[in-house]
Every structure is written in C-alpha cells, then in structure tokens.
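User: Predict the complex.
Assistant: Input components as received:
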Amino acid sequence: MKPPVITLLTDFGSADHYVGAMKGVMLSVCPGAQLVDISHEIAPFAITEAAYTLAQAWPCFPKGTVHLVVVDPGVGSARRPILAEAAGHRFIAPDNGVLTMLFAQVSNHKVREITAERFFHRPVSRTFHGRDIFAPVAAHVAAGVAPAKIGKRIDDYVRLDFASPTRVGPKEYRGAILKTDRFGNVITNFKLQDWELKGKSFEMRIGNSRISRTASNYAEMQAGELYLIEGSAGYLEISMNQASAAAALGARAGADLALLL
Amino acid sequence: MKPPVITLLTDFGSADHYVGAMKGVMLSVCPGAQLVDISHEIAPFAITEAAYTLAQAWPCFPKGTVHLVVVDPGVGSARRPILAEAAGHRFIAPDNGVLTMLFAQVSNHKVREITAERFFHRPVSRTFHGRDIFAPVAAHVAAGVAPAKIGKRIDDYVRLDFASPTRVGPKEYRGAILKTDRFGNVITNFKLQDWELKGKSFEMRIGNSRISRTASNYAEMQAGELYLIEGSAGYLEISMNQASAAAALGARAGADLALLL
Amino acid sequence: MKPPVITLLTDFGSADHYVGAMKGVMLSVCPGAQLVDISHEIAPFAITEAAYTLAQAWPCFPKGTVHLVVVDPGVGSARRPILAEAAGHRFIAPDNGVLTMLFAQVSNHKVREITAERFFHRPVSRTFHGRDIFAPVAAHVAAGVAPAKIGKRIDDYVRLDFASPTRVGPKEYRGAILKTDRFGNVITNFKLQDWELKGKSFEMRIGNSRISRTASNYAEMQAGELYLIEGSAGYLEISMNQASAAAALGARAGADLALLL
C-alpha cells in the first residue's frame, strides 16, 4: 500500500515554525502521509508566482496527490477556502486566484467551498489558517474523506487574468514576465506551442535591452549574450550561459516586454 | 502501522551536508522513520529563537513524536546532552536552555542525561555531536529504545530566564521581542491570555515608535500603520498589512519594549 | 519492509518548482520512496562543492540508498548521464566530475553510461534533465531495476583533479579551500590523517592572515582569534568561536593557502 502524498506550496519561508506546524497537524490527521515540499519561498503574497510554480509541479505527481497551497494575503478576511478536483488530483487553497493556471490547464475541473468545520484544527486562529483550516482539510482528504463531505460546489471562484501576450500592432505583441528563477532565467508568458521563433527574424524588448537570437541549449550560447530558449516550463525563456539574464536585464516577475516580428 | 516521526530543528542551514548526514544516520538506525524539518534557519547559536520555535511547533505533532533540537554553541565542551519526556513526546537536545519554553509549557516533564554511548555513532567527533550523539539517540528512541536505557534522570538541567513582562511602574510594563518572522510580524512576550487590550487605551513603545491600535486581522489594517494583533502563536504581535512591522520598527529578537496602560 | 531511500543534491535552490517536479516524477515511478534532501543550495554549477558535500553525506546513509546529484552546467550538451555503484550505494549524476571524491573514497567502484531511454520521463526537454533523465532513472533503480539494465559499463568517466596539498619547498605546502560553511568554518584540503599539527610549530597563510594555533573544540578558543581544528569532515578547518573565520579571512572555496612547518 503506497502512502498518500500531500505537497506543500507556501510563502511561509523555511525559517519559522509555520511549515512544521502544518506538517504536524497533517501527520496527526493522516499518519504516514508522504509530505513533499514544492516551495516555501514564494515571495510573500505573490499569487501569480505561486500559480505558476504550482502549474509546473503538480503534473509530475501521481494521481491521487493532494496539493496544499497557502499564499493567502486575505487571511482573516471573508475570502473562502476552496477544494478543487482536476485530473485525478486534489487542490486545497484560498479562493484568491492562486489556482488560475491550474484551471486553465484542466478545463474539466470542479471547485467546492470548504465549509465542514468538523475537519478544522480547533480553535481556528485569525491569522494562521494554513495550520487550522488548509492543512487539516488536506490531510483528511488525503486520508480518504470524500470531497463532497468538505463543502458544496461553487462556480463563482476567483480566476485572475494572468496576461497571455496581446497583439498591439501589425507585428507587435505585448507580454509579461511570469517568473525569474534561481539561475537568472527569465520566463515569459509566450507559450512554446504558439511561438516558433527559431530561424526567424524577431526582436524581444525588455527595457532598453534587445534579444534577437535563439539557442537550443546553454552550451550553444556565447558568454555574456542573451538568448531566447525553449524552456522546460513550456514557455520562451531569456537566458545567458552561466550568468543571470534576470540580473543583466534588471527583470522582475510581472514586468512588461514586447515582441516584434 | 504508522512510521515513527522525528522532527529536526537546528541552526545548520540547508546549504551544507550537516542535516543530510544526520538524516542518513537516523535512517540507518530507524529505517522508515518519517523525518520532518521544523527549521534549519535558526540564527547560529540563537537558543531563545530555537526555544520559541520548538514551543510553537511540537504541540501540533502526534504523541510519540521525537523532537531533535541541535542549536549547540557549547559543542565539544562539558555541556550535557539530554532527553526530555513531556506530554507523550520526547525531546533530544543539548542542556543549554533550548528546552526552557517546553518546560514552562508542560510542568510535568522528566529529564535524563544522555550517557549510553552504545547508541552513539562512532567515532564521536569533537565538533559534530548532531550526527554522532543527538541524531542516533533520537533514532534509537524513535525505534523503541526506552528512555530509561538512555541515561539517568537529572534535576539540575538548564532553564533560562526568557523574560515575561515585568511591572516597572503603576501602569507600565517592560517586555521583550521573542522573534520577528518572515512577514515582518514582531512577536512580543505578552501572552494573549494575560493581556486584553482591545477597546482599551494603551501605548506600546519600541524605540521611538508608538502603537496604540488593535486589529482583528490583516484585512482590517490601514496600509502603513502599525497594529497590535492576537497572533496565532499565543502572543501579542505588532503587524502591518502587507508590509514588515519589523523593518518599520527596526526591531530584533531580544530587544526591549514597554507597555503603558 | 523498509522503503527505498533516495537522496537529492542539486544547485536548484528551494524557491522554484524544480526540486518538487523531480520528486513528483520519482514518486510516480517508485511510490513510497523516502526522499531526503542533502542540499539544493550548492552554488550554481559548483561541481567541486557538490562533490565535497556528497562525499560528506553519503557514508551516513544505509546501504542500498540511491543518491541523485544534479549539478549540471553542461545540460543539453553531449556530456553523458552516469550511474555509479560503490560500497553498496548507487549514484546517478552527470559525467562532469561531480563524483570525483566518491571515486577517491571507494576505489572499488563501477560506472555505467545511462542509455536506457525507456526509463526516461517523456518528452525529454533540452534544459531539465534532472526531471526527465536523472530523477526517473534514480527512481527506477530504487524500485529495483538492475544497474545492468540502465546502460553499459564505461571506464573513461570524468575525474577532476581536486588538489591535494602539494609540496612547494623543503617545509612549505600549498593547499586549497574546499568549502566555507554556514558557521564560517573554512575547510581546507589538508586531511587529518596526514597532518598532525597539535603541539607543533606551524604557520598557515591565507592572504595576509596567519594562523599558528590549534584548538580541540570551540569552547577552547578565545574570541576573535583564528584556530586550526580537526573538523568533523576529516580535514583541517580554520575556525573562530561564535564568529565567521571565512568572513575574517575573506576566504572562498577554491582559494589557495600555504602551510609552513
């Protein structure tokens, strides 16, 4: 019998007791559950970055996995906790748009508002719903509680407009930076399947910088030059070989860029 | 059969091999043990911060859990390794006061000096007792070795004076900052159960700053203003909505504050 | 039945989805595997630091453990993925020298080129072989696939020259810094078994600094002074009590030092 898997994605960092407390609650509810950290280093309250990180990680996990996402600037306010079911996976999160990219990946999904307080950790504090609501509900679901017992289905859950590139001229598109990673790769919102630039003439503009070359891998790149590559995340990325494209560009998640064909 | 749970709390950071080495030793002694990181980012040698973090995390875990705490500025000196039993949990730590808050939480606790060298990892190095003493003893205890076999009971273990607020005038109290967290919340040593300030007139002073408002949650707060909130840790905390109160105050763990009623 | 253990050592950091994605792939292939992080904070592309960290950690794990090492500046180029067997452990890594210290530790080792594409995660991306090649192969091996099914043995795998100290004068040796750790300890490549300096007259030189004292443990050291100690890693280390020797020396991994007897 394989143990149930619960992943964790938060902006709690790893210095404080918050993640450990959530794990303790989950192991109390569902002993033997396999707890896997996706990341606790999402920038505080960065819903878009969390949505992107979740979208990259969850498809690698086996069906039946429960994914716990706690990036929750609205804790203590009226925002609802939700449970989503998609592609055989379950997702527990605040209803603030952090599941937006999941909903786009899996159009056939169901969402429920989490209302069954008997599965909460008592007393429920005002500021730590990760420990008191999200973690215990995730563990109960991992332990076999049917989603229908967690709450009723809803259709008015929050979906944010994470910009896909928009056409702003005959041969000009405006896009955005989804994330910059540890290696300084700059991940754009131009999906590989929609944009084939290799061998074509193009110019990508970020601030005062211009990129007009593609590379197939890091080894192909000349040192100190910027390239577009087909990133493993399914998007065009801007990269430098063994250096940080993000630092060279002064790029940050959320910033604009332009593509001219 | 649920696997035994061992938590880890250290100041080792996560960049070096230290934590991995301890985990390898534990899995060699107790295969299948479930290893859960509380934090490895305690500031080096910060006994108070570790004591606070442990006190927040351990009650969330199931009974039977073994908690390994290695924040040990005295490694290699004569300080003793100890095993504590409290509330059905076991704690392995150096005898330097890092269990002080646990002892305050659970008055009915037992402490033993760890002396049974047959449970150590050999040879015992002079500088890495985490790997050579604390980790293997924790794993043996998790695997079922009775505490009585680890060493004799002692009563002269170290308890530090983590200041509770003291009255310094007719309506004035002096307290301290226990910790500042990733979100910039400033956790004071004023316990919620002892201090009810909502609706009352008060002034909390840190350096040149003054706080005289309370809020029930982050959503209630005006941007840029400091509030006292009832923190999930059971203490009054100073917070700002989506900004760092610690940065605004220049506050650090250990610093003084005053409360005037 | 104890679950198979897989350790992870990368330069991916813990902020992005990379490590989580690899873990998801491994749990899909080998449900119930026990995944243990050694470190994900190796400096990007720092093969020497990864080799040293692995050499310190793997011997603490039980036989049968699979160690996954992904520090891979050549991803997407022609460098081969390899599987090594040594001392009852298995190692999955790129063939770039990152196993050099393991090969020195265990002279009786076998190395195979990983070629069995049926164990890969499809499609194989150009930039994320950790998820698509290394992780799934590690999980298949942990699940019981015989190394011989992974690929043929090779003898021309990469071994780097991690400098041992060299004699450069009648009583002078030149060495190097292997690593500086979180506590600011500076780990040299002078092995304890070869160098006994206690009670002898010596001078170690790093830049303009001179060290000529030894200590047995941190408690023996005067504040603000530099000492040579016998490190738990098996090498001479330069340390200060409750302060960073690395900061005091301006020392970094790879830098030269001299020992005069």
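The helical segments of chain A are 18-29, 47-57, 100-105, 129-142, 245-249.
Let me know if you want any component modeled separately.
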